[in-house]
Input
Amino acid sequence: MSTATDQITEQVTVGYSPDGHTATILIDRSAKLNALTLGLLEDLATAAREVSASAARVVIVRTAGEKVFCVGADINHFAGLSAAGMWRDWIATGHRAFDALAGLRQPSIAVIDGLAFGGGLELALACDFRVIAAEARVALPETGLGTVPGWGGTERATELIGRARAKELVLTRRQLSGEEALAWGLATAVAPKTDLDEAVSRLNNDLLAGAPLAVQLGKQLIDAAADGAPSRVLEALAGGLAAATDDLAEGVAAFREKRTPHFTDN
Output
């Protein structure tokens, strides 16, 4: 999936670990600090659909370049839009892309290795986990441009850090360091940039160690609970589904035999 916009190459690629258990979505428009365009957003949604249909158990989201995760929306691509175009095309396309990412059955990890501003932070917020470099900075600075976050940032930030801190993030345009993002609850883990891959690997391995179907069911149960769905109904259904799997039998046997389980996603 790739296009060329204004002679700047932009692409979203999907790669898999040798065992197929980990998928990596890479967004590359590094020449423009990974600023997002409609084409990239559409390709991201396509990548999410591909990964969802794959055998991957964990999804890692990365961007190209060394200093910037993503500076957000490309201003040159939306500044001239009409009100209808902003509503119909720009905002809607971003929501479709990030909702596709957030709605993956597999858990997802955003690797924030540099600046994540505006839509870049919203991209990371659409993932289940965020591992951030201590040297990185995150912010939602749109009000300084005369607009507001448009790709789910207000909702997802509020869900993660609460109303008061979400207002501080959006209304004051405060930039958070990696350590501050961790303290606020925006980040799952923080590490020096040189140790970032190791921190990602630890989290990835922790997620892979669980029974794949159970991990995916757990993610969906939590997301449904956040939307107000009753756990007494959904947990019964999910538990019934898990009870029919070989992985539950393997997990019980491993517990009794005091060994590490070998899950097969069946």
